[in-house]
Model the fold of this input.
Amino acid sequence: MPVETMKWRGNGLEIIDQHLLPMREERVLMTTVEEVAIAIETLAVRGAPAIGCAAAYGVAVAALEKCERDHVVRAIERLRRTRPTAVNLFYALDRMSGILDDAFSSGDPLARLTDEAEAVFQDDLALCRSLSMHGAELLNDGDTVLTHCNAGGLATSGYGTALGVIYAAVEQGKHIEVYADETRPLLQGARLTTWELAKSGVPVTLICDNMAAVVLAQGKIDHVIVGADRIAANGDAANKIGTYGLSISAGRHEVPFYVAAPLTSFDFELATGADIPIEERETAEIHSQFGTRTAPEGIRYYNPAFDVTPAENISAIISEKGVARPPFASVLENWNVTD
Ligand code: MRU
Done:
């Protein structure tokens, strides 16, 4: 496992505080629902599958705080309001809501809720491993991959999606090198992707976001691989802001553009990406990055945290079910059948 993103400790949920990376690797124990909700809102824990896992554990934290059904229901509502785009959050909370009757009619609701949260986490590990094995088949020994944001161990239960594909290829004995976009405004690529790849011994080169097109034009990249926060039934995929532009650049230079995500990141209720809710975050993230003001007062700012890459820009979607090629709608319809 490249990273231990979070761990249930019996008296609360422990996470790596991702605000502090890469300078400090510190773990923080959260013992209240409010702490878990704030950790998700402020991106101390982030990345679609990791948000889902943390929220599931957050429900167990609620039962630790006060083992009463009303309190746990309110906690689920609070956690639902943390971040709107990653559908994994709602998947995980629906799963926890679905066992409330069972939990509160059992002799030990806390144990039942904790077991379910642990199952959400373990399932994510298995799904990420499985999709990564499928994706690794697309990579050849000696390939270089460009990625955006962090879709690695830190963004999941520990293995990753886009980076999971790279880890799996490396485990198969392939030599893979990575270019990481820094990912403005919060620098998930610079701070997190480089940190975990370096820790895992995968050679990584950091570039600013605005260098990606030229790096693609220079022929340095064999594949672009990104994760997703929500994939619609037609294959449109929401991911970190900048992904859409990267898909256009990759298409212009005929570099395959892959999206890797577990089915817990798919929203089959949405026909297209047009209805995916896009989180807008505080403008301070743009003008006062990490506390230092870099742009003037008295002007306007706009800070959408995600964008939607249209299915037509995507060469393949990788999930635990395999590798889908365009047109995606019919393949994804088959993936939507629960076994
Ligand atoms: O705002 P973040 O850091 O939570 O955004 C994360 C991403 O956009 C990831 O690429 C996505 O969640 C996939 S994580 C496997």
